[in-house]
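Lab notebook: predicted structure, single chain.

Context: the supervisor wants predicted structures on file for every construct in the current expression panel, including those that have not yet been purified. This is the next one on the list. No modifications to the sequence; it matches the entry in the shared construct table.
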Amino acid sequence: MKRLAYIPFIALMLAGTTSCEKTALNEVLNTSDQEALIFMIEEEKLARDVYTELGSMWSAHQFQMIKDSEQSHVNAIAAILNANGIEYDTLPLGQFNDEGLQILYDDLINLGSGSELEALKVGATIEDLDLVDLEEYAASTANPTLISLYDDLMCGSRNHLRAFMNGINNKGGTYTPQYLTQDEFNAILAGDHESCGG
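Prediction complete. Output recorded below exactly as produced.
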């Protein structure tokens, strides 16, 4: 996700549990695929960590439920990394190896601490960004295992986005997509909850 440099920080089931937590195939992954996986495990960790922190501040049920789903996303990526002997660091809650993700985390926690509505918008922002990054990584690899992984993660993120938008709408708020196109965003919201990882 190299679009982090362009994030307007201050502007800135649910289910989603994936069956990617199945046995990952051991296969040769090129450098680009390895870098993508290492980045995405941190981006999924960012979602989990943000929802953990915001869930401790606000009562919206989305944070607890989606936090658990994000852990399954982390586990799915970790399974492939581990099966292929690819080393990666897992840092404590709220800490990231990628400097851009660290800045993003800090900014999103600051935004989400303002009100429950703002916290729900933070959730929508994360899923909005995550979907675009996953789509780009899926399009840039020829590896069928990774394409299947990214497709499952995108399915979960679409469910998460719908859940956050339900919360935003119920509070009388609005959210304008920052990364997805408006047409892509509208199509996701028009869709039903999906069963992911089939």
